[in-house]
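Please review the protein record below. Tell me whether the encoded fold seems credible here:
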Amino acid sequence: MDLNFTREELVFRDEVRAFIEASVPPETRRKVLEGFEVSRDDMLRWQQVLHRQGWGGPHWRKQFGGTGWDPVQQYIFEEESAAAGAPRLLAFGHKMVGPVIMRFGNVAQQKRFLPRILSGEDWWAQGYSEPGAGSDLASLKTRAERKGDYYVVNGQKTWITLAQHANWIFCLVRTDPAVKKQAGISFLLIDMKSPGVTVRPITLLDGSQEVNEVWFEDVEVPVENLVGDENGGWTYAKFLLGHERTNIAGVGVSKRELARLKRIASEERKDEKPLLADPGFAARVAQVEVELMALEITNLRVLAAEAERRAPGPEASLLKIKGTEIQQAISELMMHALGPRALPMRRGALGERSGTLPAYAAPVAGAYLNLRKTSIYGGSNEIQKNIIAQTILGL
């Protein structure tokens, strides 16, 4: 693979860079680059800016309202967005349910839901995990019973990211309890405003309420909101998880955070040399950087496969493992670089409240705590290693 951009790709990169630099609101950029919480309004505002530009779906084909960009252009967009401090796109709509609807949904569903993802009108949540069905997702118990033109849904989902903002949720539900557990699952699209839907926040270690429990009590869902075939949901779930794991890799964001780590570790301190001048610490930073470069190449290979309309395979598990390990390693090194200045403050706290400390120090501990979960969600890294062993090594 030639890792050098062509002349046309360099022109495209300059166009993307100029637009993003001119369009990201300064306050939003500050939050992203200094590691603070980005609000719902910040994210929606950025999606609307991209939509007006015609870039609302950078990973989608033109027939569905996307840009039709090739994998290299998509990569350039994500890298430039991360470097410039743009908020990440709402992955649950763009990179999860959107591709499922494009691939397995009917024309009516495509016309109804896809434009609203691009415009930012719909905020999607993912309803997969349950209290007894996380890594073993096929053990889920949320039931959907067909009654005429509706499914009646009862059950509980947990660890549902940003469900407090969502107006739609895509769920795996059990529609046939009598067959093998993977064979009795369906994929439903549920309006969060439906009677019987309850969202309860879960407070995390960093003090934030990013994830939630979602309860369904006799929730009526029109049959037209079933994606694909009844009891075919496990196939669609695996397709979606491949896209999710690819997205979790977060190469562009890790490159931005690595640059921030270097800036922090290069600071002169009273009567001390910069920490980056310490050979041991510098070696640890270099190791992470080498691993990130390798991850970047693997990510490009996966994007190339997607351009050929092939779903991500076991290589998505590799991306998920290494991507999350790198994210955690960078956050650990950032804590080391700040030492006692890395106060255990919530990521959304204002820097000014940290007294004489630099503003960027306030969210570091919160980010470190928050990133502990990345090696668990999307299928734990231990499960990903099993997938690799079975599909690649044949064990």
